[in-house]
Amino acid sequence: MSSPDTSLKAFNTLGLEINAQAVVIADTAEKIVAAWNTSQKQHQPFLVLGEGSNVLFLENFAGSVIVNAIKGIVIEEQDEAWHLHVGAGENWHRLVEHTLKKGIPGLENLALIPGMTGSAPIQNIGAYGVELKDVCHYVDVLHLTSGKTARLHRDECHFGYRDSYLSMY
Ligand SMILES: Cc1cc2nc3c(=O)[nH]c(=O)nc-3n(C[C@H](O)[C@H](O)[C@H](O)COP(=O)(O)OP(=O)(O)OC[C@H]3O[C@@H](n4cnc5c(N)ncnc54)[C@H](O)[C@@H]3O)c2cc1C
């Protein structure tokens, strides 16, 4: 077995001196799928990370770690609400700050929760009586094997207490 050679120290918030076989910072869906295909060819485990604030590595990871760094915040103002479409790789707290600076209420109770936006629906983040499910209309998911993106409506995400359909993967 080859020894892990890529540090995950910067990719887990505890700063543990842990290594993986490969770390890929992917800012497009295509790069994530390419990393998946490579890991499949090499029969390696594959792990998607956000900021690594809710993952505790106990030992080196004998596979590929993909950091989802897809950026972008699109805000659409409609009569009854603002609609936001946010890349998974946007920091969650900075998103909350961004909306408040623009005078958009709704996310303030969820300020200061560590992690990336793409991780927020995985466990349905929540604080002070508000959960992501209260403000989330849909989650776009990338099917690694087909490379296609599908939109899951809020109901299809089966949000529960710090839980969702997405946490099964
Ligand atoms: C000090 C502290 C305070 C916290 N306070 C709260 C709180 O008040 N409320 C609350 O709900 N949570 C809280 N958390 C938990 C944490 O903020 C959430 O779990 C957050 O969503 C983790 O984001 P992350 O980007 O660091 O995820 P990571 O730790 O990187 O990943 C968490 C899990 O999600 C998966 N994942 C991450 N991104 C993706 C993706 N794009 N696609 C597929 N899978 C993905 C990972 O594989 C992993 O299983 C707290 C954590 C800490 C350390």
Bin the helical content: 10-25%
Distance between the termini: 26 Å
**What is the level 1 CATH name of the largest domain?**
Alpha Beta
- Can you tell me the overall shape? globular
Number of beta strands:
10
Round the mean pLDDT to the nearest integer and report it.
95
Please give the structural blueprint:
Blueprint: E1 6-7, E2 19-26, H1 29-41, E3 46-49, E4 61-68, E5 73-77, E6 82-86, H2 92-101, H3 120-123, E7 126-127, E8 130-131, E9 138-142, E10 149-153
Parallel strand pairs: 2-4, 3-4
Antiparallel strand pairs: 1-2, 5-6, 7-8, 9-10
The chain binds flavin-adenine dinucleotide.
Question: Could you give a short description of this structure?
Answer:
The chain is built from three helices and ten strands, in the order E-E-H-E-E-E-E-H-H-E-E-E-E. By secondary structure, the protein is an alpha/beta fold. Strand 7 and strand 8 form a beta hairpin.
Can you put this structure into words, describing what you see?
The protein has helices at residues 29-41, 92-101, 120-123, and strands at residues 6-7, 19-26, 46-49, 61-68, 73-77, 82-86, 126-127, 130-131, 138-142, 149-153. It is an alpha/beta fold and 169 residues long. The protein has 2 domains: 6-68, Uridine Diphospho-n-acetylenolpyruvylglucosamine Reductase, domain 2 (2-Layer Sandwich); 73-168, Uridine Diphospho-n-acetylenolpyruvylglucosamine Reductase, domain 3 (2-Layer Sandwich). The protein has a 4-stranded mixed sheet with strand order 1-2-4-3, covered by helices on one side. Strands 5-6 form a two-stranded antiparallel sheet. The longest helix is centred in the first third of the chain and has 13 residues, at 29-41. It is globular and about 50 Å long. Bound molecules: flavin-adenine dinucleotide (FAD). Residues 47-55, 68, 88, 113-116, 118-120, 122-123, 125-127, 162 line the site of flavin-adenine dinucleotide. Flavin-adenine dinucleotide binds next to strand 3, helix 3 and strand 7.
